[in-house]
Amino acid sequence: MNSRLDFICPPPKQNVLKKLLEAKKCFKLICGAGNENLEEVEKLVALYAKAGCRFFDLCASEEVLKSAQKGLDFAIPKVEQKDYHFCVSIGTENDPHFNKVTINQKDCKRCEKCIKICPQNAISQYFKVIEKNCIGCLKCQKVCKHDAILTVRLNPHPTNSLLFTLHSSLSCIELHVCDKTDADEKWDYLCENFNGILSICLGRGKFSNEQVLSLVRRLIEKREPYTTIIQADGSPMSGGEDDFNTTLQAVAMAELIQSANLPVYLTLSGGTNSKTAQLAKLCGVDFHGVAVGSYARKIVKEYIEREDFWTNKAIFEDASKIAANLIQSTFTPTSISIHH
Known about the structure:
The chain is an alpha/beta fold. The chain has helices at 11-22, 38-51, 62-75, 113-117, 139-143, 160-166, 183-193, 209-220, 244-258, 276-282, 294-298, 301-304, 313-331; strands at 26-30, 55-59, 85-91, 99-103, 149-153, 172-177, 197-202, 228-233, 265-269, 289-292. It has two domains: 11-95 and 156-331, TIM Barrel (Alpha-Beta Barrel); 97-153, Alpha-Beta Plaits (2-Layer Sandwich), CATH 3.30.70.20. Helices cover 38% and strands 16% of the residues. Strand 6, helix 7 (183-193) and strand 7 form a beta-alpha-beta unit. Helix 2 (38-51) packs parallel to helix 3 and helix 2 (38-51) crosses helix 13.
């Protein structure tokens, strides 16, 4: 038996994703590497697919992939789905995207700050963490003055058998890298076993600029030109606000990658919002796409939570227009006036 798992990404699917990237109109919705809320994922994919999004970043879970497909089926006829793409995320050992939290009930003072700040409704009124909703943003931990919220690590790398189960639904697999612990090992495995587009989600984190570029060069030397996406992750899971300051680190990280003139596709993430494309263009960053997570979910949250989401056409259309405006701002950013 062949020792390789041979994760085959059908060439037409891969080529369509490359065309989307080369057109520099690639908006990717980040549902969350740790987001296992099946209902939310289904609704988000349906809504953003209807609004024009064709690329979706998901938790590496068979159940999540099935929910995403259900959402796509709701919005897009089967015959048109070759133009739509799913990506799952895996990570190195210490990547923050694979955190969850738990609450120490003995230390908790029931102040409700954690409940109010959580963007995913992941903390119940009884101060229990709803694990499927938690994406590990740690906003709750930052506002807790009693050290009652503890970090729990997920397994950041799915088993080989799970990836083999998922591979036929995927156009891309993304490796989140926040340190050098096991990046090469994970990357080598993906390069050897998956023939679709691979993505590296990379922030400065514990790296200097020189270390970032050295790592990227080392990883992509194993790849054919333009078969890799570098997702410049400015400030992970920080995109709740819609201002230039929030997206500044994403643009700065993208500029660093662009300066190296590498044969890769460049996308921006980490604090991205409707202002990202404007600031990137002002700074001379020529990007292929923008990946938006926290902000994209926030602006449609009140619609997603409605019980009549699937049955009330007016609600779905209103939410779809909001999502479409965000996508459109990525492709046709307005000019910025600077006054001295």
